[in-house]
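User: Some background: our group keeps a shared notebook of sequences we're curious about, and every so often someone picks one and asks for a predicted structure to add to the entry. Today it's my turn. The entry only has the sequence so far, pasted here. Could you supply the structure so I can complete it?
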Amino acid sequence: MTTIDCDTCVLRGLACHDCVVTVLLGPPPELTIDDEEQRALDVLADSGLVPPLRLVRPVEGPDVESA
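Assistant: Of course. Here's the predicted structure to add to the notebook entry:
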């Protein structure tokens, strides 16, 4: 299961216009899709019928102390 939270997407605002979530549903605050739905969206995107999911989640980086 995938939870899509547009508020935490690194590309929010930059790639929303070309994201399957915005194209099909409009920008939701949070959306949950199961694995079967994700596969269906991937098939549609791979066929060129809808844009792919552009969700990019932030990652935790190493703790770096400044000098």
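Suggested note for the entry: The helical segments are 20-25, 35-46. The CA atoms of residues 13 and 53 lie 14 Å apart.
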